[in-house]
Amino acid sequence: MHPVSLHQVGKTYRLGAVDVPALSDITLDIHQGAFTVLSGPSGSGKTTLLNLIGCIDMPDRGKITVAGRQVQSMPDDALSDFRARHIGFIFQNFNLIPVLSARENVEYPLVLAGVAAPERRKRVEALMDAVGLSDRQRNLPAQLSGGQRQRVAIARALATAPPLVLADEPTANLDSHTGAEIIALMRRMQREQDVSFVFSSHDPQVHAAADEIIFIRDGRITGIEGGRA
Amino acid sequence: MNTVSLALRNLLRNRRRSLTTLLAMMVGLVAILLFGGYRSNIIYGTQTGFVQQTGHLQVQRRGYFLDGGDNPTAYGIANYPQLIERIRQDPELAPMLAVVTPTLQLGGIAGNFAAGVSRSVMAIGLIPEDRNRMYQWNDLGVVSYAKPLPLAGAAEDTVIVGTGVARRLNLCALLDAPDCRPGRAHTASDGAALPDDIAALTAVEKASPQPAGENRIEMLAATARGAPNVASLNVIKANNMGIKALDDVYMVMHLAQAQRLIFGTATPQVTAILVQLHHTWQIPAARARLNALLAEHFKEADLEILDFETLNPMYRQTNEFMGSMFSFIALLIGVIVLFTIGNTMSTAVVERTAEIGTLRAMGLRRAGIRRLFVCEALLLGLAGSALGVLCALIIAYAINHSGWSWTPPGYSYAYLILVRVGQDLPLLVGSVLGMLGVTLLSAWWPARRAAKLVIVDALRHA
Ligand SMILES: Nc1ncnc2c1ncn2[C@@H]1O[C@H](COP(=O)(O)OP(=O)(O)OP(=O)(O)O)[C@@H](O)[C@H]1O
Ligand SMILES: [Mg+2]
């Protein structure tokens, strides 16, 4: 079973009287345990597609199946709970909660998922260690570098061991060296935790690491490349 | 890392904004509490004064209160000793009673005829010992200004007058007034020369030798049969009655003296029976029982029962006036606090839009977002309330120990300025609950707006 399947999905934005088709007729399967990259020029619809897969936006047409569930008709609370259990997010701007320390940021999704405190502590400990931030656990996000913040964000996205992690241009705000480290970390974590990673990027070094590359232009899939898989 | 600690951290993160909001709430609450405390002090003080003077309930002949103020003979209660006995012996009433005492109010002309001066007075005939017990009533624990009547134990012809009366009658020895000269006749006396027969009456009354050092005056009143009667009285004290209009006509005498003046040798009557209860809240029960007693045993006497609020319309007026002022101030402050907190929360929502989007993407429900912001506001509200109450108590303590006083309009002596904040639990609880209510109300809309944000739009809000 594919973690994500899209069938003839379309999304159109209305700007005044003008219809802006952001996505048209997307039919797509994401492979289990793969490192999938969405590639395309600016405005091609990468973010829109990731938002639909992440169940934080709804399509105008078509069907989306995530982890075996049809999501486009789910009520808001059910969808929230679904996201909490099945999807991890990594953002371009890191989006850590500023009042929470690094470890608390990682712990937060576990609190949302209702995991008991001792279990949470173990899990956070392991993740902080895995992203190499054992010694910065008590720091607030403002006291961390961009790369460190994105490491915390990766640990946070993986905290509940979701089957699917989405990342929208996770390296766009980092220098190329740090970006490469983050890619390597994500790749390693993806293998270790056996999750499906989907993320968007213009970055060629990301393409090199991918199992599969989906090319997208003007809201349509223009090609899928097997990458190294 | 629950909602409360998250809310608290967010508040601490914006220390300056939180403090400003807190300060607004504190100032608002302090203003409400101090004014509320001032109001309850005035209302309790007024109530205590009236209850000490008039009792909680009075039994009078029907219509006397409205029409009969200066006509004691037409509205006299003849069999009052039996009625009082009934009241005192009633098993249901007895435990509620503090004092039951008769009174006879009469109008007349007091004259220092030797000095050629006179003035009309309202005299109250009373039993001084009973009244002095009534003055001790202080169920509400206020500063009581009542002083015992020195008539208790004094001869039956002794009286007390208001300082206004004393001044008018040239009783300088009783006054602390440097401009009062004894024996000085007023240039324009307000009465014509006494008719001969009354002059003769006064002469008879004065025939007994007058002890030195006494301030003797004569009191002229109409008897039950319509004939004039005169009593020679010994003024032993001039009291400042507070309200000038009262001070100028006030006279207190022994009940027996008043009765002799009005009824002579006929059966003495009174105009009212004062009933003072232990607690004001006992009025309804006491009144119901009194009504039953009157209906059962004194039907033909045509009596009615009046409570102290009816007897003293000023009490209700004061109450309503202070109440409307309080409501106005509370409303004003409520609105200000509403907008202050509303503004603080709205700003917080706008600032944290991206964070809201992130939390929602991670799976926090709409209700969770709402709870987060409501919780923040509530924490602010609780802190503001706690600090406000604390501040108000400290200021109230300072005011109550400062000895500040003022002379209310129409009063002729000064009252201490006191605020009852700590002793007024309903005021404290009501104000704090009101403040928290306003807090919730003002946080509700921003919290709702935050919860309804479209996630992808919120996330774009970097
Ligand atoms: N909220 C919106 N309202 C109107 N149009 C939108 C909205 N969001 C996206 N679009 C339009 O949809 C199209 C796809 O946008 P999207 O953000 O998915 O592109 P992208 O591939 O992520 O671009 P970038 O690489 O610059 O991030 C664009 O034409 C964009 O203008
Ligand atoms: Mg994008």
Structure summarized in a few sentences:
The complex is a heterodimer of chains A (229) and B (462). Helix content of chain A is 35%, strand content 28%.
The Rg value of chain A, from CA coordinates, equals: 17 Å
At the fold tier of CATH, the topology name of chain A is: Rossmann fold
Number of helices of chain B: 16
Q: Strand share of the residues of chain A?
A: 25-35%
Largest protein interface? A-B, 29 and 24 residues
Structural class of chain B: alpha+beta
Mean pLDDT of chain B: 87
Oligomer: heterodimer
Residue share in β-strands of chain B = 15-25%
Q: What is the CA-based Rg of chain B, rounded? A: 32 Å
The total domain count of chain A is 1
Give a short account of the largest sheet of chain A. Answer: 6 strands, mixed
Distance between the amino and carboxyl termini of chain A? 18 Å
Residues in helix, % of chain A: 25-40%
Q: Please identify which CATH superfamily of chain A we are dealing with.
A: P-loop containing nucleotide triphosphate hydrolases
Please tell me what the overall shape of chain A is: globular
Number of distinct beta strands of chain B:
11
Task: Give the ordered list of helices and strands of chain A.
Answer: EEEHEEHEHHHEHEHEE
Walk me through the topology.
The complex is a heterodimer of chains A (229) and B (462).
Chain A: E1 4-15, E2 18-30, E3 35-39, H1 46-53, E4 61-66, E5 69-70, H2 76-86, E6 87-90, H3 102-112, H4 117-130, H5 146-158, E7 164-168, H6 176-193, E8 196-200, H7 204-209, E9 212-217, E10 220-225
Parallel strand pairs in A: 3-8, 3-9, 6-7, 7-8
Antiparallel strand pairs in A: 1-2, 1-4, 4-5, 9-10
Chain B: H1 3-13, H2 15-54, E1 57-61, H3 64-67, H4 80-89, E2 97-112, E3 117-126, H5 128-135, E4 158-162, H6 163-168, H7 196-206, E5 216-222, E6 228-239, H8 244-247, E7 250-254, H9 255-263, E8 272-277, H10 283-297, E9 303-307, H11 308-311, H12 313-351, H13 353-361, H14 366-400, E10 405-406, E11 415-416, H15 425-452, H16 455-460
Parallel strand pairs in B: 3-7, 4-6
Antiparallel strand pairs in B: 1-8, 1-9, 2-3, 2-5, 2-8, 4-7, 5-6, 10-11
The complex binds adenosine-5'-triphosphate and magnesium ion (MG).
